[in-house]
Design goal:
By secondary structure, the chain is mainly alpha-helical. The protein contains seven helices and no strands. The chain is extended.
């Protein structure tokens, strides 16, 4: 066991000492491995410093940024799936805790919103804004489940199902706003 641990650390001197199992030499073997590790860390730090200095001289960006990527449909579908999932989760928690903490019940607040006499255009828009993320996330989630079976990874299918997710969600949300 000690031989395996010492080998994984990469210190030949400690491997030999573990093999001989000489107890008084344990301190020196540990020092050997610590020194070997510090030499490696120092060398890596020196190399990284040189790397960053070189990158500053030639004015490279620190990391690839969104401005260098050409926006494509698979990138958009992935981003929208994450955004809709996070937005719906956040909205659920905020709405749920707000209803629990406010005095009265849900019907009281629903009646209050109806009394504001908002126009049909605003209500329809609000319904669409609430329905679209749910519809998109559901359709794109089904798309991901299809991928879990190992199918649909060719580029043509990815684009077809991506457009279907965007357009299908808009159609479903539009139908839901009319209910």
């Amino acid at each position: 066991m000690a031989l395996t641990r010492a080998t994984n650390r990469g210190c030949l001197y400690q491997v030999l000492q573990s093999y001989n199992s000489v107890l008084p030499r344990t301190l020196s073997t540990t020092q050997c491995c610590v020194k070997s590790h510090m030499d490696t860390v120092g060398k890596a730090k020196y190399e990284m410093t040189g790397h960053w200095i070189k990158n500053e001289k030639i004015q490279r960006p620190i990391s690839p940024h969104l401005t260098i990527w050409k926006w494509q449909l698979p990138m958009n579908t992935s981003l929208m799936h994450r955004i809709t999932g996070c937005a719906m989760t956040t909205a659920l928690y905020v709405f749920g805790y707000t209803i629990c903490l406010l005095p009265g019940d849900y019907i009281t607040y629903l009646t209050m919103v109806k009394d504001w006499s908002l126009g049909p255009a605003l209500i329809t828009s609000a319904k669409f804004i609430l329905a679209y993320p749910l519809a998109y996330h559901a359709i794109n989630g089904a798309r991901h489940l299809g991928w879990d079976t190992g199918k649909g990874f060719d580029l043509g299918t990815i684009y077809k199902t991506g457009w279907f997710a965007f357009i299908g969600a808009a159609v479903i949300a539009a139908v839901a706003t009319q209910l």
